[in-house]
Design goal:
- The complex is a heterodimer of chains A (344) and B (567).
- With 344 residues, chain A is mainly α.
- Chain A has twelve helices and two strands; from the N terminus they run H-H-H-E-E-H-H-H-H-H-H-H-H-H.
- Chain A has a two-stranded antiparallel ribbon with strand order 1-2.
- The N terminus of chain B is likely disordered.
- Chain B is 28% helix and 18% strand.
- The radius of gyration of chain B is 27 Å and the shape is globular.
- Classes of the chains: A mainly alpha (344), B alpha+beta (567).
- Chains A and B meet through helix 2, helix 4, helix 6, helix 7 and helix 11 of A and helix 1, strand 1, strand 9, helix 8 and helix 14 of B.
Chain lengths: 344, 567
């Protein structure tokens, strides 16, 4: 197993290099960071020419990539445009742990930009994932045990209703019902946006209160897929011979369902969850935007729209690394859950 | 039991994230503005005082990128500067300048402007101080100037400080600026913010640049009516009243700025009272907000939405080289109904690029909607439908024009209406839409507007409001392979117009300059070089709790220290 893990990690190095190259080229071609610089007017031509030089955007693409990768502190830059490179570069490069500085939040290190948002995203996404998995287990197992019952039909209908609705609709609808209209009707209402009420401060109870609607929206959408998955794998397992054997042995129903059936039905679920986990880091673009949640999804969107290559590359590389790591963890989990699987 | 660790791990991750996000965050700050020294906060704020605290919440749909006035082009950052930083002078709700850092506006009468207009002398007020108590002196102006023009600092724009030949500070209260030639646009462009030398100079001396200075992103020492206490990325920024503000302590204790990028969520927050002020409100949301008691205030900040034509004599469409065709397009599109229906009558058709400034020849009226006259002009220009396909043509060239703009909803709606109406006068329009960062890309980056990828373009821009100067029509600004950053995207060069633009920027006498602008506006209007669609105001939604609110087009929050909050 150890050799397998080491081999997989070594294989990841050229893969990450290749990914970084492709992403860098794509990023530098999807927008112009100096077009308006977030303003309402086009950047003045003299400023544009100066900034292109100062930010190193006048260099050929491969040079920009190498500076991003290995830094430019070993060479000198021409910042004043006199044709003489006299100012030492300041980037140390990704390989030395420096992802550069943001073009938008000028001068702010990329890792700091990302780190400020990551806890918020993890809080929202992990909570939603836990709620989804727990609810999906209850709904999926119940539906499998009472296949085609009235409850199964109702639950299936509701979950498909949620699955087929776009998340922005659920999110806005929940704001208008539980925030706007509840307040209008004089009922206890939930906050519409943000993480806390400025009059109260950022206390854990405020954060939890402000999480209710975004978590509800995210869970409602993803519950259907997970619960259907659990239902179908449970149905498959429940028809297996060993379940019939367990029943004929007279084992309690609870033991059969949770010990024999659910554990064996868990393998495909682990695959789905394992593949989903790295993307939790990416946040939920639409949900974060609507509820003004300061997470990674919004960070990505804001910086992509201004072609902020260093920050977007930082986010994408973080997700790429997470995908590789979580896939490895998923593979290891397989072996733990199913003793028939061996990697050595 | 085997999975206990898994549950423990999950629980630990949630608790850690909760702690990281919540416990690291601030509680509502004390009313005292922060100084360099840590402020002593009372251990427990009395409940009555806390309840009486006046906190106004602003909803910003875009988060500012940086707060250093010289490192940003963002409108949201610029208007926020009114809270915590100061312009040397700002503008009231009539867009008249009034002094903030200076004792009086420089003029020829008080010796502030030399007779030839090339030397401007500012006399600073005696009582101006940074929020930490340090006096603001001419040294701060000199330092700011030196930082802006230093090539080690990647500021957003060096204009107009790069036009200075020298900046001298004969004493602590005097700043003397010498330009190479008279600079008429000084009032609207100079000193949009100040950097504190006592904080930034050590950074520059240590690092050789101020690009990474902590003050840029967290300027807790400022010189406005409020002081920044904290800014959490993506979430909020908090400003508290500046006790040291020389124009009077604000009546509101705290401005809490919440970043809400979604328009519908902004509207919901304004309705629930979670926001007291919002801006960039969609026209379609105005009626519902007004029904909830939210006041809508529109202010003109010099932006006018209009059509630009790609007029390159070789690469442009041949029809657009003829002024009669351009005039016909203006006459064939009912901009009055468009303003009434799509913009709810809140604005009106723009006649010129300079509407809502004093630079427009008062005899100019917007082009009327007159499709018959439009058809006659096209006939006169020789564009006639010879093959009966419903589209006019001439010398084998069909009058088919491509029309590009961004993906903004109101622009797409306008495109659709124009396409339908112009087809009725025999002009076929093909529509193109681009993401705004692509649309506004430079010639060097292959931007569609800059390279003339379409025949006509729609967007809104502004001169140096409330001044009229712009370099957008100068011949030297036509982009090319040799000059890829040029911003004369219509690629129009007229020697007479070019000379007028070069002249006005040197005319220090207001009336002389106004006459030059009258010639400019008349020529651009009559030849339909630019066709106005609507005057593009800034729309602010003001919640019912906010009182005494006045807004200016140039510096919206000019009297924010007088605003009050009532329950």
């Amino acid at each position: 197993m150890t050799r397998y893990v080491i081999r997989r990690l070594l294989q990841a190095i050229p893969l990450l290099l290749f990914i970084s190259m492709v992403l860098f080229v794509l990023m530098r071609n999807i927008g112009d960071p100096l077009a308006t610089m977030g303003g309402r007017r086009v950047t003045r031509s003299s400023d544009r020419e100066r900034l292109t030089r100062q930010l190193g955007l006048d260099k050929p693409l491969y040079v920009q990539y190498f500076y991003w990768l290995i830094g430019n502190d070993w060479t000198k830059m021409d910042l004043d445009g006199d044709g003489v490179a006299e100012t030492p570069g300041r980037m140390r490069g990704v390989l030395r742990g420096d992802f550069g500085t943001s073009l938008v939040n000028r001068g702010k290190p990329v890792l700091e930009v990302i780190w400020e948002r990551l806890p918020n995203t993890l809080l929202l996404m992990i909570t939603s994932e836990v709620v989804v998995i727990l609810c999906a287990l209850v709904v999926g197992v119940y539906s499998a045990l009472r296949q085609y019952s009235l409850t199964d039909q109702i639950v299936t209908t509701i979950s498909f209703f949620g699955y087929s609705l776009p998340i922005f609709f659920i999110a806005l609808l929940s704001i208008y019902i539980f925030a706007v209209n509840f307040k209008r009707w004089g009922l206890p209402y939930l906050p519409a946006v943000g993480m806390f009420d400025p009059q109260v401060g950022k206390t854990p109870s405020q954060v939890i209160l402000h999480m209710v609607l975004p978590v509800f929206s995210l869970s409602f959408i993803y519950l259907a897929a997970y619960s259907r998955y659990i239902r179908s794998t449970m149905l498959e397992v429940l028809s297996q011979d060993y379940i019939r054997t367990a029943k004929s042995k007279g084992l309690p129903r609870r033991t059969i369902i949770f010990l024999h059936a659910l554990k064996n039905a868990a393998l495909p679920i682990v695959t789905v969850v394992g593949l989903d986990l790295p993307f939790l880091l990416a946040g939920a673009v639409v949900t974060e935007r609507i509820f003004a949640w300061p997470g990674m999804g919004r960070l990505f969107l804001d910086h992509v729209s201004r072609a902020d290559t260093p920050v977007v590359m930082g986010i994408l590389m973080l997700i790429s690394i997470a995908v590789i790591v979580f896939q490895l963890i998923t593979d290891i989990m397989y072996a733990w859950l199913d003793p028939r699987i061996r990697y050595d | 039991m085997k999975r206990t660790w898994l549950y423990t791990l999950l629980a630990a991750m949630i608790v850690s994230a909760l702690l990281l996000t919540a416990c690291g965050g601030p509680q509502p700050p004390a009313t005292q503005a922060p100084a360099e020294e840590p402020v002593e906060e009372p251990a427990e704020e009395p409940a009555a005082e806390s309840a009486a605290r006046k906190v106004a919440t602003f909803i910003w749909t875009q988060e500012f990128d940086t707060l250093n006035p010289y490192y940003t082009n963002m409108w949201f950052s610029a208007i926020t500067q009114q809270l915590w930083n100061a312009w040397a002078w700002d503008y009231d709700d009539q867009n008249a300048p009034h002094p903030v850092l200076v004792a009086e506006m420089p003029s020829e009468d008080n010796g502030g402007i030399s007779p030839d207009g090339s030397v401007i002398t500012m006399k600073l007020r005696d009582d101006i101080v940074w929020s930490d108590g340090t006096p603001i002196t001419s040294e701060d102006f000199k330092f700011t100037y030196e930082m802006v023009v230093d090539p080690n600092n990647a500021v957003a724009s060096t204009y107009p400080l790069d036009l200075l030949v020298s900046l001298e500070t004969p004493d602590e209260r005097t700043v003397v600026m010498t330009f190479e030639e008279p600079f008429a646009s000084w009032q609207a462009t100079l000193w949009h913010g100040l950097m504190p030398a006592h904080i930034m100079r050590p950074v520059f001396e240590a690092e050789g640049t101020i690009d990474g200075a902590a003050w840029n992103l967290k300027p807790t020492v400022g010189c406005g009516p409020f002081v920044l206490t904290d800014w959490e990325s993506g979430s909020y920024a908090r400003f508290v009243a500046n006790e040291n503000y020389w124009l009077g302590k604000p009546k509101i204790d705290e401005i809490f700025m919440r970043f809400v990028p979604d328009d519908a969520s902004q509207v919901a927050a304004l309705k629930t009272g979670e926001g007291d002020l919002g801006t960039f409100i969609a026209y379609s949301d105005i009626p519902t907000l007004e029904a909830e008691g939210v006041n809508m205030i529109t202010v003109f900040s010099g932006y006018n939405e209009g059509w630009y034509f790609y007029l390159d004599p070789e690469k442009g469409h041949p029809a657009l080289q003829d002024a009669r065709v351009r005039q016909a397009l203006a006459l064939g599109f009912d901009r009055f109904s468009l303003n009434e229906d799509l913009l709810l009558g809140l604005t009106e058709p723009a006649a010129t690029y300079w509407d809502n400034t004093p630079w427009v020849d008062p005899s100019i009226e917007p082009w009327p909607y007159d499709p018959e006259r439009a058809k006659a002009l096209l006939d006169e220009a020789g564009w006639i439908d010879t093959n009966g396909d419903g589209v006019r043509d001439k010398d084998g060239v069909e009058l088919v024009l491509t029309y590009g703009t961004t993906t903004r909803e109101i622009r797409q709606d306008t495109q659709a209406v124009a396409q339908q109406q112009l087809s009725e006068i025999g002009v076929k329009i093909e529509l193109f839409n681009y993401a705004s960062d692509i649309f506004f890309s430079s010639y060097g980056e292959g931007g569609p507007a800059a390279t003339g990828a379409n025949d006509m373009f729609e967007y809104s821009t502004v001169p140096n409001f409330p001044d009229g100067d712009t370099s957008e029509w100068l011949c030297r600004e036509i982009p090319s392979d040799e000059s890829p950053d040029g911003i004369n995207w219509p690629a129009y060069c007229d020697e007479e117009l070019d000379a007028l633009f070069q002249l006005q920027v040197t005319q220090v006498d207001f009336e002389e300059r106004q006459q030059t602008f009258y010639q400019i506006t008349r020529k651009i209007f009559e030849e339909a070089l630019w066709v106005g669609l609507w005057q593009d105001p800034d729309i602010f939604a003001i919640g019912p709790r906010l009182k005494n609110v006045k807004l200016s087009g140039a510096t919206p929050f000019f009297n924010i220290q007088e605003w009050d909050l009532t329950e």
